[in-house]
Amino acid sequence: MQTREPVPYVGRFAPSPTGPLHFGSLVAAVASYLQARVNSGRWLLRIEDIDPPREQAGASEQIIETLQHYGFEWDGDVIFQSTSFESHEEALALLVEQQSAYPCRCSRSDLADAKRGPLGRIYPGTCRAGSEPGESSIRLRTNNSEIAFDDILQGRIVQRLESEGGDFVICRRDGLIAYHLAVVVDDEIQGVSEVVRGIDLLDSTPRQIYLQQQLNYRLPGYIHIPVITHQDGSKLSKLTGAPGISLREPKKTLVRALRDLRQEPPPNIEQSSLAIIWSWAEENWQLGKLFECKAIFNSA
Ligand code: GLU
User: Fold this and answer.
1) Of 28, 65, 141, 165, whose CB has the highest number of CB atoms within 10 Å?
2) 91-103 pLDDT, tens per residue?
3) 193 near 220, Cβ under 8 Å?
């Protein structure tokens, strides 16, 4: 009888350097880190620096420094996504060659009247049958078969890509590789076996699974953790004015992140060392406490 080699656990935290690490991202980092540690896995830090127009000078260094200061220990060197550029380009070329993807000349204004769906404007398929040569984006051809996955916390998620969002961009008009393609290629080449990230990316996952299928990649498991919100329910993000987390009180902030993740660290544990807080967290991590939880009010 053939036995399958068990897949070694590899997790990752993949911030985009669009600003300093805010509390919501710290919570996502803590969850993915603990999930990797309790599975005796590797945990990678990947800085997703492939969108220079959206990047903020110095943000990568600031994020790395903050994570270090909070006691995170990633395996291997920090990975900069821009260094896998050739793999992104190869995957793109393969998708075009197998006619899973095609050039599209539509501009934003061409699509302004397109119907809206749950994933934004639904691409009406204008360039599917061909387009004039010239500056183009590249879209992935979708269909209406069900793309489904079982999120460990959020349950079964199902999308029909063609009717819910239509063919989507995998390489932008300015030549930059789009997030969905880059993330899928990198997760594959880095052997990521489980993705733990914020629920704001839940809607993106079926598109990423579809890409994995088109590229014949392994499918990682997915866990989408609740977003941290302001009291009015809006997501903590740079756009809603969430500040970068301070380097001044890492123990207090880390304990707050654990409490927000519904773990129950003992009172006054913030008076112990960071190492003790982390070892308590590893010994007591219970992902299940976040079952079906979609949002958590920022406790600060
Ligand atoms: N780089 C993305 C972000 O900062 C996250 C990518 C992912 O976790 O898949 O929002």
Assistant:
1) 28
2) 999 999 999 999 9
3) yes
